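input
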Amino acid sequence: MHDELTAQDIEQMRAELKERKTATLPELIKAVQEARAFGDLSENFEYKAAKQELNKCKRRIRYLEGMISSAKVITDRSGEDEVGLYDKVTVKIPSMGDQEMTYHLVTTMRADMLKGRITRESPVGSALAGRHTGETVHVQVRPDFGYDMVILSIEKQEDDGSIKINEF
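output
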């Protein structure tokens, strides 16, 4: 399986990877060595904390390397009047009293549902992708539940790098 990412996503991941390998990792290794020098490791909180941070950094490095190596580079090919990658889409949900919501379609590395950033692979994102203003789309959340949304507006956006990649 390949993760669909933009060139900007990969560039940001490579920059983070370089920073972690050349600066963060050596600092954390040094911190572990210094904490180890404090003595008894069984009751050495500084050592345990330093080891945890080092392991977290190593996990992130492996994760970034895996994402970069398996990435499939994509670009937005949507038309001017259809929902595409990085577009902001305002919808209303008739079953919820015409409540309006705005979603921003992004890649997996930048998704954050709490900020309205959803992936094209999510139920809402896949229902919206390629659709036009005024269309009613059906979002199938699970086999026994779905709902309709009406697309009110599409605000075309570019991948300008302002949305940073997610950390964990």
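quick obs: The chain is about 35% helix and 25% strand.
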